[in-house]
Amino acid sequence: AIVLPERLLSSQASPEHRPRPGVSASELGQYPPERIRNFSIIAHVDHGKSTLADRLLELTGTIQKGHGAQYLDKLQVEKERGITVKAQTATMFYKHTVENPESHGTDSSSYLLNLIDTPGHVDFSYEVSRSLAACQGALLVVDAAQGVQAQTIANFYLAFESNLSIIPVINKIDQPTADPDNVKAQLKRLFDIDPSEALLTSAKTGQGLSQVLPAVIERIPCPPGNCDSPVRMLLLDSYYDEYKGVICHVAIVDGAMRKGDKISSAATGRTYEVFDVGIMHPELTPTGVLYTGQVGYVITGMRSTKEARIGDTLHQAKTIVEPLPVI
Q: How far is CA 96 from the centre of its chain?
């Protein structure tokens, strides 16, 4: 039996946001690029980025409430210091309802949202840049009390130079020293961001969070790509698992990758067989396939992470493709 999670907001307590026992290939195939959004959360250290990520996972039923702090921070140093060091990805399913002026009613569509979490420390700008390479938009989180800080500026320009749609989120508005109006003025002065575009939230109390995912869907474009082309994907990250071997995080740019396919590395020329493929929901969830615009993982039998070159283009074996821009 599926145990329903405790809801953070009663307005989100609907059947479409229940935790899922698994995701099938046919279900994943129901999400064309038009109904996919790939986004990151960028912020200065301790502005609430990881907490906001947790709340979004809870709102969509991807994880249960009460799991503990900062779900996506899995390294020991991340848990001890409260600073994200290694990028993580998580796939969420969200039903978005909009008013239809023609029918005087509402239209609902289910969306696949890929949250590609980024490190929050100035020393990890390279990790941030490669995470942003798989995104079309970013939530720029700013502490309502501290305002714009050094890493806020650095991350903004990383996202801006990547041509991402940027959604400003003023977080921690529940704090006694919060001054969201001053932060709005900073965003206008430093980044020329319209103050009316800023979302006011408190990831701690849940205030304002119902605005965030609708804004992601409405303001961030869908991923580009050709569904009918041979598969071509960007290798975002990798790590070694003693039971599964090297696990690669990838973003599918063109085509579809299926279990049993043969893929090659544009950097090394080596060819591999796809033994397992799926999404992070939020843990490894096998689906047997990944389609255009989707983000997930692939296991190919690589023996060392040295074979998985970050920024490499993986493509269908025995085909000639143009490598993706190097991060």
A: 17
Residue 87 near residue 118, CB atoms below 8 Å = yes
Which CATH topology does 232-316 take?
Answer: Elongation Factor Tu (Ef-tu); domain 3 (2.40.30)
Lateral strand order in the sheet of 88-100 = 88-100, 105-117, 36-43, 137-143, 165-171, 199-200
Q: What is the C-alpha to C-alpha distance for residues 118 and 115, in angstroms, rounded to an integer? A: 9
Length of the chain: 327
| Gap between the terminal Cα atoms of the chain | 44
Cα dihedral 204, 209, 213, 219 sign = negative
Q: What is the dihedral of CA 261, 297, 265, 302, to 10 degrees?
A: -90
**Measured distance CA(114)–CA(37) in Å, rounded:** 6
3-state secondary structure of 37: strand
Would you say domain 28-219 falls under CATH 3.40.50.2300?
A: no
Q: Give the pLDDT of the chain (327 residues) as one tens digit per residue.
A: 433 333 333 333 334 444 445 678 888 999 999 999 999 998 888 888 888 999 999 999 888 776 555 555 444 443 444 444 444 789 999 999 877 666 666 778 899 999 987 765 445 566 677 778 889 999 999 999 999 998 889 889 989 998 999 999 999 999 999 999 999 999 999 999 999 999 999 999 999 999 999 999 999 999 999 999 999 999 988 888 888 899 999 999 999 999 999 999 999 999 999 999 999 988 899 999 999 999 999 999 898 989 998 889 999 998 888 888 765
- What does the block give as tokens for 311? 């920024």
Which regions of the chain carry the CATH code 2.40.30.10?
Answer: 232-316
Residues 6+ apart with CB under 8 A from 68: none
Start-end of CATH 3.40.50.300 domains in the chain: 28-219
Query: Residue written as tokens 């973003």?
Result: 251
